[in-house]
Predict the structure.
Amino acid sequence: CVCVCATGFAGGVSRDDSTASMGADKKDYSESNYDEFSGYGEALFNDAEYDDEDRQADAVYDAIDDRMDTRRKSRREKQLKEEVAKMRAEKPTIHQQFSDLKRGLSNVSREEWEAIPDIGDYSLKQKKKK
């Protein structure tokens, strides 16, 4: 059996009740107060209690965020290693360019090594001229 109120409305919230509850909520929810990045300028649930269930939900979301960040980090590191390897293949370092020549120096005899002319120190002469 449903009890019909004096207003003729069977159950729910009457206009009188809804206007009383709306009077308590005077926040600006218009588009001018909405930012796509941060949402509304005011906290929507400012008056709600932060309980154990909320803490547990936040912990779960934080764990998920950490896991996703770890996955993204490993992908970023893998991509960076691939880019470095590709760059080294296209443009080898000076050490890599001269490594075969350095290995060839082991075959140079003592006489050949002694026959290499000294370049002298021309940097001091250049500085004295100036």
User: Anything to note?
Assistant: Helices lie at 15-24, 52-90, 94-104, 110-114, 122-129.
